[in-house]
Amino acid sequence: MNTSVDDLLRRKGNDVITIDENATVFQAIEIMEARRVGSIIATSEGRTAGIFTERDYLRRIVLQGRTSRSTLVKDAMTSDLVSVEPEMSVQDCMALMTEHRIRHLPVMADGRLVGVLSIGDLVKSLLKESQAKAEHLENLISGSYPG
């Protein structure tokens, strides 16, 4: 069992939370808190411009002594996006997250944003896979495997 990003998005849903890059960081944080997410996609004229995360808030607002009410998302977001495609595996996503030390991955298909995966989404998926494999082996060992 090798779960793809597309499989995961179908199970999880591909609701993408966005905000215009000219909104304030405070507005972004309000949306993130209300939606209980750790990131929000920043857009410019309807196109993906970057991602703003909790980590961006700490590094680019708090540690630099800026205020969220007067700083625009475009001045605090990460614009150099690391993204994945729907065909990629969950394992490949984990490797990318580890390599780039990130916790959120935009999913792009044909240049369009189709979803966002978090480290939590990937861990849950891998845990389900591991549990399914363990049950399969248990059934084989106990002789109750239907095949």
In short:
With 147 residues, this protein is an alpha+beta fold.
Give your account of this protein's structure.
- This protein is α+β, with helices and mostly antiparallel strands.
- The chain has one domain (5-142): CBS-domain, CATH 3.10.580.
- Helix content is 43%, strand content 20%.
- The chain is built from 5 helices and 5 strands; from the N terminus they run H-E-H-E-E-H-H-E-E-H.
- It has a 3-stranded mixed sheet. Strands 4-5 form a two-stranded antiparallel sheet.
- Helix 4 crosses helix 5.
- The longest helix has 24 residues, at 119-142.
- The relative contact order is 0.18.
Q: How are the SSEs ordered, and which strands pair?
A:
Layout: H1 5-12, E1 18-20, H2 25-35, E2 39-44, E3 47-53, H3 54-62, H4 90-100, E4 104-109, E5 112-118, H5 119-142
Helix pairs in contact: 4-5
Tell me what the CATH architecture is: Roll
Q: How would you characterize the largest beta sheet? A: 3 strands, mixed
Can you tell me the number of structural domains? 1
- Secondary structure class reads alpha+beta
Report strand order across the widest sheet: 1-2-3
CATH superfamily: CBS-domain
Q: What is the N-to-C succession of helices and strands? A: HEHEEHHEEH
Q: Count the DSSP helices.
A: 5
Shape: elongated
